[in-house]
Amino acid sequence: MLKFLSGLVVGAIVMYTAMHFHLVRGQNGVFVVAKVTSDLSDVFVDIRGFTVEDWKQHKPLAAAIIQSDRSEVLDDATLDSFREGVHSVVDHLFSKD
Question: Superkingdom of the source (predicted)?
Fold first, then answer.
């Protein structure tokens, strides 16, 4: 009976954490961000390769990151994506075919 009750308590703690926090992996490590809405979406998200289109699909995550004063994470990912896009356009324009 003790195993059942301890499993119940651990499960409740895990569910509460999953419903109220995002676990985000960024360029500078892993950090926890409080969710804007209580649901089970985006419990763990690796944002290292996110593009602008990815952020459009994860708007609640972006809002939670901004509210937690970690908005520099958004800038880095978007800037990297933009920089890669510019490099590919420049490479295409100046390539010798």
Answer: Bacteria
